[in-house]
Amino acid sequence: MYFLTGWPRRLLCPLKSEEEPFHVQPSSQRFYFAVLSETQLSVWFSRAANGYILLFDVVGGGEDKYLYEPVYSKGSRGVKVTPGYKEEQCAPALSLEMKRPIDLEAPITSMQSLQEDLLVSTADGYLHILHWDGVSNGRKAISLCSVPFSLDLQSARGGLCLDLKGVYIRDMTYCVTLDGFAVVLDDGRLGFITPLANRITADQLQGVWAADVTDGTCVAVNNKYRLVTFGCASGSVLVYSIDTTTGSMQLSHKLELTPKHYPDVCNKTGAVKLIRWSPDYSVAMVTWECGGLSLWSVFGAHLICTLGEDFAYRSDGTKKDPINISSMCWGAEGYHLWVITSREETELVENMEEAPPQTQQAGILQFNFIKSALTVNPCTSNQEQVLLHGEDRLYLTCGDPTQLPSGSSESPHPHNLPHGGEGSPTHHPSPNSTSQGLSTLLGYKHWHVVQIHSTYLESNWPIRFAAIDTAGQCIAVAGRRGFAHYCMSTRKWKLFGNITQEQNMTVTGGLVWWNGFVVVACYNFIDRQEELRLYLRSSNLDNTFSSVTKLHSDTLLLNVFRDMIILFRADCSICLYSMERRHDGPNPSASVELLQEVSMSRYIPHPALVVSVTLTSVRTETGITLKAPQQACMADSIILNLAGQLIMLQRDRSGPQLQEKLPFCPPVVLAQYVENVWTTCRSNRKKRHLLEALWLSCGEAGMKVWLPLFPRDHRKPHSFLSRRIMLPFHINIYPLAVLFEDALVLGASNETVVYDSLQGPREGRESLEGLFPYCTVERTSQIYLHHILRQLLVRNLGEQALLLAQSCAALPYFPHVMELMVHVVLEEEATSREPIPDPLLPTVAKFITEFPLFLQTIVHCARKTEFALWNYLFAAVGNPKDLFEECLMAQDLDTAASYLIILQNMEVPAVSRQHATLLFNTALEQGKWDLCRHMIRFLKAIGSGEMETPPPTPTTQEPSSTGGFEFFRNRSISLSQSADSIAAGKFNLQKTFSMPSGPSAKGSERWSKDSDCAENMYIDMMLRRHARHLLEHVRLKELGCFSAQLGFELIGWLCHERTRVARVDDFVMALKCLHKDFLWPFPVTPAGSISSPFKNGHRRTVLSQHLLKSQSADSLLNSDMDTVPPQAAARNSNHTWLDRLGALGPTEPTEMDTALSHGGPQTQEAFLSPLTNKTEECSIGSATDLTETSSMVDGDWTMVDENFSALSLTHSELEHISMELANKGPHKSQVQLRYLLHVFMEAGCLEWCVVIGLILREATVIKQVVNFLDSPEVPHETVQSVRSGLLGVEAWASTDCLGYKPFLNLIRPQLQKLIETSVEQIQPEAFLPGASNSKLAEPQPGGPSAEDSRGPALLGLALPLEPPRGLGTEDGGVPEEQEEQAVDEGVYDCTLS
Predict the structure, then answer these.
(1) Looking at residue 1119, what is its pLDDT?
(2) According to the UniProt entry, which residue ranges have a biased composition of type Low complexity (predicted)?
């Protein structure tokens, strides 16, 4: 409610004196303060006892009218226009003239000012009543012994009940709303004296006293809440209310430091010295004999204490002496606390070097506060936003982040700057930028700070009211006169353009926003009339743009509900008005119409007791669920906070329905000790529990919610079931706003920063920065949903709890809500010293099983709880072994890992190992590599006995961690080299086959020194088993991830398994699996060759009937670009399409026309010639030219851009290029396949090398493998497997995927070599009849290296394999019938998967 900010100021009196001030007292409006020392009395302008009564006349100055005058800039608003404007801003020069003293013949113990009288108590037990004006005729004396005291007024009539002989009044205070005096007697007893008539006379006074209290020290009264507070010698503050029926004093609550929060000082404070209520009576400041300040809300919520933390300790840990206070009082509107320190304190603080020891300047400390707007203007819009205001700035927690990007730019004065100090050290809280998905109220840690316009402040200080709209974009403030408003989006203030209009009105009942209008209850000084005005926000601030409604009585409170205004007036009546926004002119206007007046004088003893008034749709009637939708949002009830009593008046709908002018039923008391009320006019059918509830703040008692109860599924409600229920719950923050849909409470708290290390004591004087920490205000929030759910379960309202929880299940912190509920109940029940007859934990556990996050909730709660409580927890929720198995069944491995920690601590190691093995295998199968690493460490810890260091629960697996192999951590292979260069330079297959067949040396050193440990062998066995499983099922991608993520030595293991599981039984099936696993597309034919796209459900491809005739031996373009093989043959030759584009040149249209003019199919010979164009030097896009930094899928496109302009491409060539792109897989898959190729090469797994070479269409790989098959180290089974596998792929490609045919034709010489070396004869029908070209022989051994030549390039018709007998011929001729058959059978099925 109130929060300290910055450092306190030090005010120095201009006159030096030997005396120290010991008392400060404000005037009624708190604009002037009288400061008293032994022989001096000074009067301060706020902006900026020996037995004698000394009366002074305060006289205005003579020639010097003002001590301080404001300096205005030229043309300042209002100086010349408004009469008396300048005079009001000056600090007047006052002189004090003493009248004759009055001798009361006894020491004075206390004085109290009344309206016309001065009440004085003396040490001889008398009360003296003095008149201010006529001293001589107004003196009366009343003996305290003549006042009857008793426990209540009824028994007081029987005579004297308390012996007061020799007793006098130590301290007393007058309470206006109770019309009596609260007194503390010198023997420590507490009393309340009530005059029975208007005049205070001896025979008209009666007193009641509080039983069992004898250590009273001081007293203060709260006029708004009718509370009497007494300080005690024990350090506690007792708060009493007066029973209206009997007049007895009832103890309401206590204000005291608790050992929980202040164990060191709670019993060492000494007696309470002073109590001071703030001007709005919402907080009380307390100080003790031993020093220190403490702030409490009206019903006991503790806000600030300077006896602990940074107030009590320096940054080096040494303890500071608490500040000792002799007098204090609140400044105007509660923005300042004026404090006079004791003599010892002053000598420490104020010892000035230049002053002589005997004279010093009087020192007054002024503490700065900011307060909630709810303290004086509790309107509905202020209840959903946190709005704090200081004397010159506003603090907001709202705003659109798109319009309010940063905290530092919100205002030239961030909230953490000290007032008036720009160079002081500050503490900037970091904004929380990760919060998403909730209202912007939670999006930031910092405040939006708005500096109030200085022009408005200088003439209208202090700010009295502030209001914010429901969207949090517009703010209005009202000071002494007029008002001003601010827009967050434009960051501009609007002030009255006519200063006279501003100065001729003052806001009396508050202000509130409605539909783009500022609604103001004000007093018009010109007409001397109370008015209700509505000003349009978008227009200039001027009376010509306002709607004015005259009122008959002073307005004390103002609020809005939908399109209705509710006013509470000084005659204790309530007025309801309707508002309508009209668009009948250039600017929107508003019309106001009186609906109803309700007199409350029967129920309200004094108008100042009403804290807030609210219109709401909340009702108590039985038909909550039967209300029509439009009726559910009607203003059905008036809710009054009457001095902490919450009173509701419902509309009486039992009689005839007369629209809005329905009578109200008699008031019903809903709750006691209420400080604030929150309700909303919004509706949401999915969250009716939260939006149709009434939320109450009750000080020390926490919060309460008046919750509606709905029958489930629209069933008829039970007759015995109440329709609403009041549920109390405690929170750890002071609530300032309620977010209804988000189930959150927003608040603020004081934080401190110590700066005493920056500057040490100077010449015996410690700076204020060293004495006090710098105070900031932090935003806070708290979840309350788990409290409500628990309260419902306690009351056997599980069905209602389930409905409420299901409506909030989408909230991002709902899992945390469930954890909190389990944790709180578990802590209370498991640590209870007494047996619990009806434990709640089983009910809570059963309730949580209704939600899918049950397993996570239990284990997270257990891991945040002491081990000693686990048995109690799992006795209620179930065996952790069963819960672990449920997690595995639900595939929730991370949660299962958390349960493993529980099992490790609760079960024997054998059980932990069994469950860990189960989880390890499952994690391996699902590729949860982080979890696998944790499980390996966990299993090793079990084996080595490290039971006391369980592994942490693994975090959620990131998607990127399983997407690719982390190949480059432990290996130095360069993936930018071709397969030939790898084969030649990096490794030797001969060496590979001579490697031992067991695990490599690296594998034997993978686990630590204790490699022979049984646990390590056990883990190795599981890893090898999983690798075998992956390879058997052709899951090479997972095998690579598995090896890279877990450090599994794949090459050594493959060497061991080379003749077993590392064999390839079915090349076609393996090829298909790789295509699917690596998202690698099957090679397809160009679209132009499709004559009949769909026939019998299969795609049919037709070879083009037209071939281009080659005119020169060096021309590479010897066939139509639209035929089947080009895109495959061109790529798989290890020369990419771009290698050849520069050599091709533009195709002459005459050649194309000539080729198309031939009617029948013709077969042309393909002539291959080496490339001599410069393009070869910078050829890109090769399947082996891989770069990690490539931005494209299959290579760098920068060179394409460089060379593209030099290329003249035909439509066919562009289509050829597009087919090249379409037939390549992702770049990452290419990197992964090449790494696996390298691994299989090193391990000597030649079958897998062939399969990967096929999918990459790398002829050099096939060539290398076939050449090595001649080695005697290669088993005969491997040779047979490679040969039969290639033949199987050839047969499959001829029938199901023609895209592979060009590459198979390219490696035809290698396959021919395999067949020739075979002992067995392969049947001719194993091959399709086709044409062979002798020009396609493999490059000569003496020719250029494979890397230079990149193999032959084939851009002609697909040439199927010949029968074995014709493979070696030079002429390349094909029988005529075979040629025709090849053309006739040119329609193939192409299956794409």
Answers:
(1) 31
(2) 424-435, 1351-1367
**What is 899-922 written as a DSSP string?**
HHHHHHHHS-HHHHHHHHHHHHHH
Is the CB of residue 303 less than 8 Å from the CB of residue 1?
yes
CB atoms within 10 A of CB 1265: 24
CA-to-CA distance for 242 and 178, rounded, in angstroms?
8
Q: Is the peptide bond before 462 cis (omega within 30 degrees of 0)?
A: yes
Strand partners, 133: none
- Tell me the HSE value of 1289 on the side-chain side, using a 13 A CA sphere: 32
Residue burial 1081-1110, b: 16+ Cβ < 10 Å; e: rest: ebbbbbebbbeeeeeeeebbbbbbbbbbeb
pLDDT at 119 over 90: no
Q: What's the residue count for the chain?
A: 1393
Q: pLDDT value at position 73? A: 60
Following CA atoms 168, 171, 175, 176 in sequence, which dihedral angle do they give, to the nearest 10 degrees? 90
Give the C-alpha distances (Å, rounded to integers) separating 1331 from 158, 1292, 1328. Answer: 134, 19, 10
**In this structure, what DSSP letter does residue 84 have?**
T
The arrangement of strands across the sheet holding 484-487 comes to 465-468, 474-478, 484-487, 492-494
Name the DSSP class of 308.
S
Show the CA angle centred on residue 269, arms to residues 266 and 270, nearest 5°: 130
Mean pLDDT of 538-546: 92
For 1077-1107, the DSSP string reads HTTPPPP---GGG-SSS-BTTB-EEE--S--
Q: Which residues pair with 387 in a beta bridge?
A: 396
CB–CB of 1116/1332 below 8 Å? Answer: no
Query: Could you read off the pLDDT of 458-477 as tens digits, one per residue?
Result: 889 899 999 999 888 999 99
With beta carbons less than 8 A apart as the criterion, state whether 742 and 811 touch: yes
* Burial class (CB within 10 angstroms; exposed 0-12, middle 13-18, buried 19+) of 762: exposed
If one counts every other C-beta atom within 10 angstroms of the C-beta of residue 1008, the result is: 10
β-sheet with 774-783: strand ranges across? 734-739, 744-753, 774-783
- DSSP state string for 862-884: HHTS-GGGHHHHHHHH--HHHHH
Distance CA 978, CA 970 (A): 21
Tell me if 259 sits within 8 A of 268, measured CB to CB: no
Q: Work out the angle between the directed axes of helices 880-889 and 854-863 (0-180°, nearest 10).
A: 130
| Dist. CA 800–CA 692, nearest whole Å | 14
Task: Quickly count: other Cβ atoms within 10 Å of residue 617's Cβ.
Answer: 20
* Residue 553, phi then psi, degrees to nearest 5: -150, 160
Question: Among 432-441, 568-577, 859-868, which stretch is predicted with the lowest mean pLDDT?
Answer: 432-441
**What confidence tens digit (pLDDT) does each residue in 495-504 have?**
999 999 999 9
Contact 95, 61 (CB under 8 A): yes
CA–CA separation, 1391 vs 1393, rounded Å?
Answer: 7
d(CA 237, CA 219): 9
For 52-109, write each residue's pLDDT tens digit. Answer: 666 666 666 555 566 666 666 655 665 555 556 666 667 777 777 777 677 888 888 8
pTM of the model: 0.73
Residue 271 tokens read as 């007696």
Tokens of 1124: 């089947």
| pLDDT score of 413 more than 70 | no
Report yes or no: 664 and 619 within 8 Å, Cβ to Cβ: no
Q: What are the residues whose beta carbons fall under 8 Å from the beta carbon of 711, sequence distance 6 or more?
A: 625, 717, 718, 721
Q: Who has greater pLDDT, 1094 or 1222?
A: 1222
The closest of 459, 531, 450, 442 to 495, measured between CA atoms, is 459
Average pLDDT of the chain, as a whole number: 74
Structure tokens given for 506: 């003052």
Instruction: Give the model's pLDDT for residue 371.
Output: 94
